[in-house]
From TrEMBL:
<keyword id="KW-0813">Transport</keyword>
<keyword id="KW-0406">Ion transport</keyword>
<keyword id="KW-0675">Receptor</keyword>
<feature type="domain" description="TonB-dependent receptor plug">
    <location>
        <begin position="59"/>
        <end position="175"/>
    </location>
</feature>
<dbReference type="InterPro" id="IPR012910">
    <property type="entry name" value="Plug_dom"/>
</dbReference>
<keyword id="KW-0998">Cell outer membrane</keyword>
<feature type="signal peptide">
    <location>
        <begin position="1"/>
        <end position="32"/>
    </location>
</feature>
<dbReference type="GO" id="GO:0009279">
    <property type="term" value="C:cell outer membrane"/>
</dbReference>
<keyword id="KW-0472">Membrane</keyword>
<protein>
    <submittedName>
        <fullName>TonB-dependent receptor</fullName>
    </submittedName>
</protein>
<keyword id="KW-1134">Transmembrane beta strand</keyword>
<dbReference type="Pfam" id="PF07715">
    <property type="entry name" value="Plug"/>
</dbReference>
<dbReference type="InterPro" id="IPR039426">
    <property type="entry name" value="TonB-dep_rcpt-like"/>
</dbReference>
<keyword id="KW-0732">Signal</keyword>
<dbReference type="GO" id="GO:0015344">
    <property type="term" value="F:siderophore uptake transmembrane transporter activity"/>
</dbReference>
<feature type="domain" description="TonB-dependent receptor-like beta-barrel">
    <location>
        <begin position="338"/>
        <end position="764"/>
    </location>
</feature>
<dbReference type="InterPro" id="IPR037066">
    <property type="entry name" value="Plug_dom_sf"/>
</dbReference>
Length: 788
């Protein structure tokens, strides 16, 4: 939808004077080529030059979608950076509330919201994706969205599929690059925002609110440019988890405290259960500081440095629905509901959590941008968990006493993080208009996980760490070399051929769980593997307004440290590590047709992906131990086939009316698997988790005049499952995954040259939908912005 996929931008390579203007000024995502410029209709390979530079390679052999800062401000109620992706074809971010820092996973065509390691998110080329693990669970690994704020975004580039050799196999789903602002003259900005969400579910009926303030400034004086951004968020989210008891687990009789207030519902397997209260409801305070410096050294050489600091303070608090005969809330002990007694409530049902996080990001680069025969870049980044602590009451420590102290745990991830180093070059043997443009590079990425969970016997809210409950960690490293040649081998034809060679290693892995039976204290052996991934794309200018394309690429997604060594169970657990997990191996292909409609672009893409050894948590039978064992395991083969249709129009039907829409059909089926969920073979032929067969987006924006603009957006996702055996047949409940249809609206007005205001409603139709947790219900937002 915000789009110019592969088409027609080779002409921009011939015009470095025109390109910056098109890049920054063209409505919607049409920065790659102007709809009305016939010179831009050629060959179907996007050439990225000019303007605020992207970190993407100069030649992009696949579908590309883009949204600019102006479009975000006009059309989207954006409180977090991931909101900019709301209406992209086939993309979904599992954002549960404003400031969601531990579950906001990016989903793409053939990768669900449990597969965070199958997409790549960058900010100005600095890695934000967290490849220390995959998905959510005891440890959560979403991209570090908080290191980018909506106010600093210049545009967002999204590249689909593993078709560029410049990226590791984690790009199998999509590559997202946030290009942030660098000023050309002095500028200053300020913004205040407010969101209100009336929320009604089960026995919760309350209004949850969020406040945001931000300020930024920058300047370019001579060869030096700088930009600094501050953002503060305070958010109170809706309940996310719930304490429950299956009706079948109750014993008929009078034992236990008689209580009222339980809500009779059905779980995701359609079995009756009682919802007893909320388990997690986050109050979050976040602060973000980003400082960027750039210095032009002459001859097209630029040095740049980025410092980002993100702090998060959050508390998770439960609320019991249960009341005894005196009307008091019940949080502990055995309870009796409708003549059935149930096992005692514990601190695990109504957990309290306090989290304190400080993450620091550094980025340093030296690059040339001459568009001559040769350009090069050296870039390095560091992401550091300077502080990462989570405190929680123990299962035996229940409310109300747990609110003021008692036993618990403290989980410390300090010292965790990753670093990247890349040396890249672009060689144009015959100049920018020549038949060959060759990208190549060497990359070295390293990831270190350290996660120590300790018991606290005194006061969980403030005491230091005691005995070790679990201690997991290790390192992985990926060293790569790639080369990619964009070759215009005949009039109207172009091909992009490339390969990526990767050497992966896992070292220093350890798992310590003293409370397990038997106790676990293992130092895992090192591993090394190497693969080569070929890439190929071909485009043909079939007609003056039509481009046909084909792309094929192999992707190797290596196991993360968390998948290899990150078991965090603390008692007689059957969850064990498998340090010999095989990497995921995917072949992905696309066939696309793109037609220029003068003021619009229509794209139809057929896509297919065949993945061997997908990594999922499941069960197998261990004959040596004579028991079932749950762990991250390889699923033999998953096959995905689908079609994506995307339309992007500027000034459609009348001047000022922009229309964007997409529809995606994906059939993703498990073909081979030695593991199971309940019985052997129960996953064969089932849908891959968290992949909906049908998805659709639409966004209509209208600029009434120079002051007023409005937009209406809609998103749809069909039925999907969370489990490998698709046994979660009821999606409209806690732990279910439901279909949804939401409508969003936004009105923006420029009050004067500097001041603007906006009012928005997300989920206007108040759809109540789920992805394990409940999504937000109808939310009202207001913002006031000042630009100098």
């Amino acid at each position: 939808m915000f789009r110019r996929s592969l088409p027609r931008a080779c002409a921009l390579a011939l015009s470095p004077v025109v390109a910056p203007a098109l890049l920054l000024a063209t409505p919607l995502a049409a920065w790659a080529d102007h709809p009305g410029d016939s010179q831009a209709r050629s060959l179907g390979v996007v050439t990225v030059i000019g303007g605020q530079p992207t970190s993407l390679p100069t030649q992009i052999p696949t579908t590309l979608e883009v949204i600019t800062r102006e479009q975000i401000e006009q059309s989207i109620n954006a409180t977090d950076s991931e909101d900019a992706l709301k209406y992209f074809p086939s993309l979904l971010v599992r954002k549960r509330y404003i400031g969601d820092y531990n579950h906001a996973i990016l989903s793409s065509r053939a990768s669900g919201t449990g597969n965070s390691a199958r997409s790549a998110v960058y900010a100005d080329g600095i890695l934000l994706s967290n490849y220390l693990g995959n998905g959510v669970g005891g440890l959560s690994f979403p991209p570090r969205w908080g290191l980018v704020t909506p106010e600093e975004i210049e545009r967002v580039d999204v590249m689909y599929g593993p078709f560029s050799a410049a990226y590791p196999g984690n790009s199998v789903g999509a590559v997202v690059d946030y290009v942030t602002r660098m000023p050309r003259k002095f500028e200053a900005h300020g913004k205040v925002g407010y969101v209100s969400q009336p929320f009604a579910l089960y026995n919760t009926n309350a209004t949850y609110r969020a406040w945001q303030t931000s300020a930024s400034a920058g300047n370019k004086a001579g060869d030096l440019s700088w930009f600094i951004n501050f953002n503060h968020t305070e958010s109170h989210g809706q309940p996310l988890t719930f304490a429950t008891r299956l009706v079948s687990a109750g014993t008929v009789g009078s034992a236990g405290t008689p209580v009222t207030g339980a809500v009779l519902e059905r779980n995701n397997a359609n079995a009756p259960w009682y919802v007893l209260g909320t388990g997690t409801e986050y109050e979050t305070r976040q602060d973000h500081v980003k400082a960027k410096l750039a210095y032009d050294l002459g001859s097209g050489l630029r040095a740049a440095y980025t410092l980002g600091v993100w702090q998060n303070t959050s508390t998770g608090r439960p609320v019991s629905y249960l009341r005894n005969a005196a009307g008091q809330a019940v949080y502990s002990g055995a309870v009796n509901i409708d003549g059935r007694s149930f096992s005692p409530l514990t601190g695990g049902d109504f957990a309290l959590t306090d989290e304190r996080l400080t993450h620091v990001m550094h980025g340093l680069s030296l690059k040339t941008h001459t568009q001559g025969v040769f350009d090069w870049e050296v870039a390095a980044s560091l992401y550091d968990y300077s502080r990462d602590q989570k405190r929680q009451n123990s299962a035996a420590n229940t409310l109300p006493g747990a609110a003021s102290g008692g036993a618990g745990t403290i989980a410390d991830g300090g010292g965790t993080g990753w670093r990247t180093l890349a040396l890249k070059g672009t060689w144009r043997p015959a100049g920018v208009a020549g038949p060959h443009i060759i990208d190549f590079g060497v990359q070295d990425d390293a990831f270190a996980l350290r996660y120590l969970t300790s018991t606290i016997t005194g006061d969980w809210t403030r005491d230091g760490a005691g005995a070790v409950a679990s201690n997991v960690g290790g390192r992985t490293r990926l060293q790569s070399f790639y080369v990619q040649d964009a070759w215009a081998f005949a009039p109207g034809w172009k091909t992009v051929l490339g390969a990526r060679a990767e050497a992966w290693s896992a070292i220093n892995g350890y798992t310590q769980i003293p409370a397990a039976t038997p106790a676990v204290n293992t130092q895992w052996p090192s591993r090394r593997e190497a693969f080569v991934s070929p890439k190929a794309a071909l485009s043909w200018q079939f007609q003056s307004d039509t481009v046909l394309k084909a792309s094929l690429g192999r992707a190797i997604r290596f196991p993360t440290v968390g998948e290899l060594y990150g078991a965090t169970s603390t008692a007689n657990s059957q969850y064990i590590n498998d340090p010999l997990l095989r990497p995921e191996r995917s072949w992905t292909g696309e066939l696309s047709a793109e037609k220029d409609l003068a003021n619009a672009l229509l794209r139809v893409t057929l896509f297919a992906e065949d993945t061997r050894d997908s990594l999922y948590s499941q069960t197998t039978f261990d004959p040596l131990a004579n028991r079932n064992v749950s762990r991250v395991q390889n699923v033999g083969r998953i096959s995905t086939k689908g079609v994506e249709v995307a339309y992007s129009g500027v000034d459609v039907f009348r001047k000022g009316l922009d229309v964007n829409a997409s529809v995606t059909y994906a059939d993703s089926v498990i073909k081979e698997n030695a593991g199971f969920v309940s019985v052997r073979g129960d996953t064969i032929g089932k849908q891959q988790p968290n992949i909906a067969k049908w998805r659709a987006t639409a966004l209509v924006a209208y600029r009434w005049n120079d002051r007023w603009s409005t937009s209406v957006g809609a998103r749809y996702s069909g039925r999907q499952y969370r489990t490998l055996d698709n046994s979660d047949v009821n999606g409209y409940t806690y732990q279910g995954v439901s279909k949804f249809f939401t409508v969003d609206a936004r009105v923006r007005v420029k009050l004067n040259e500097q001041l603007s205001a906006a009012f928005g409603i997300d989920n206007l139709n108040n759809d109540k939908f789920w992805n394990f947790h409940p999504y937000p219900q109808r939310s009202y937002s207001a913002e006031l912005k000042y630009d100098l």
